[in-house]
């Protein structure tokens, strides 16, 4: 299992990332400034996007949420604080799941697992979230079928999906692999194009990273500061150039 995980996309990088995130005060402060909340973000899930989940799904203490690629569980923790729901999550990073279990010992289930291989009971979840993780699926259509089976009737899949970095930019939201997979699985959905908001978020990430440069260096984490600067370089281009290469969408799909 361990050797298999080491062959997966970004595995070693994420093991190092979550080991750093567990101890770095500079990174926690950076996340709060850039995203509005510290969810140990490596991607684009700011608090406004996560609050859309609360506006979309009717959640309560009787609800059960699964997060695909949950990292250290901080986003799920935010949703639980707001709703009282039971939370579950899986991630291929051992460091991430160790931290998630330590932070959330009650009304929570965190597992080490790989997209497309981990199993859950059918009709178990009211809401399944995936923020920048579905492109790790080897077969998007098959995995969406699996996700659909895990959802209760009328359950919701809420996904943040980006093109232009890990996956190639396609013509529009109608041509993405996720759109094709949802159509194939007969899951009706609606979308929001948040490419402009992502462009502005990248600029905030860059400003927050620069603000925390000295703190990162004092912790011996200069390499993470350098990575943040490299990741946000694309937002220095004018928006019309940026959106030709990058696109980001929110998908809200429902099991009928």
SSE layout and pairing:
Blueprint (H helix, E strand, L loop, with lengths): L1 H5 L4 H11 L3 H11 L11 H10 L7 E5 L5 H10 L2 E6 L2 H10 L4 E5 L12 E7 L8 H11 E13 L13 H8 L4 E5 L1 H17 L1 H6 L3 H10 L7 H7 L1 E8 L2
Parallel strand pairs: 1-2, 1-4, 2-3, 4-5
Antiparallel strand pairs: 5-7, 6-7
**Helix-strand string:** HHHHEHEHEEHEHEHHHHE
Count the domains.
1
CATH architecture, by name, is 3-Layer(aba) Sandwich
Low-confidence stretches: none
Q: Largest sheet at a glance?
A: 7 strands, mixed
Mean pLDDT: 94
Strand order of the largest sheet: 3-2-1-4-5-7-6
CATH class: Alpha Beta
Distance between the termini: 35 Å
Question: What proportion of the residues form beta strands (DSSP E)?
Answer: 15-25%
**Structural classification:** alpha/beta
Shape: globular
Q: If you compute it from the alpha carbons, what radius of gyration comes out, rounded to the nearest whole angstrom?
A: 18 Å
Task: Please give the count of helices.
Answer: 12
Assigned CATH superfamily? Vaccinia Virus protein VP39
Work out the number of β strands: 7
Query: Do you know the CATH topology?
Result: Rossmann fold
Share of helical residues: 40-55%
């Amino acid at each position: 299992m361990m050797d298999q995980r080491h062959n997966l996309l970004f595995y070693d990088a994420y093991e190092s990332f979550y080991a750093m995130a567990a101890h770095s005060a500079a990174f926690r402060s950076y996340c709060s400034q850039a995203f509005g909340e510290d969810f140990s973000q490596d991607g684009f899930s700011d608090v406004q996007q996560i609050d859309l989940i609360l506006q979309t799904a009717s959640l309560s203490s009787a609800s059960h949420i699964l997060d695909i690629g949950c990292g250290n569980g901080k986003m799920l923790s935010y949703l639980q604080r707001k709703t009282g729901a039971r939370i579950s999550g899986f991630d291929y990073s051992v460091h991430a799941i160790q931290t998630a279990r330590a932070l959330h010992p009650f009304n929570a289930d965190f597992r080490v697992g790989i997209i497309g291989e981990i199993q859950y009971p059918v009709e178990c979840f009211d809401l399944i979230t995936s923020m920048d993780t579905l492109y790790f699926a080897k077969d998007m259509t098959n995995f969406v079928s699996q996700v659909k089976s895990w959802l209760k009737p009328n359950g919701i899949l809420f996904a943040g999906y980006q093109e232009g970095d890990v996956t190639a930019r396609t013509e529009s939201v109608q041509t993405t692999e996720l759109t094709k997979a949802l159509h194939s699985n007969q899951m009706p959905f609606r979308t929001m194009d948040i490419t402009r908001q992502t462009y502005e978020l990248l600029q905030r990430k860059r400003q927050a990273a620069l603000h925390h440069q000295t703190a990162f260096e004092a912790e011996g984490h200069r390499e993470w500061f350098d990575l943040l600067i490299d990741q946000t370089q694309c937002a220095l281009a004018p928006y019309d150039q940026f959106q030709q290469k990058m696109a980001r969408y929110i998908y809200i799909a429902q099991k009928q």
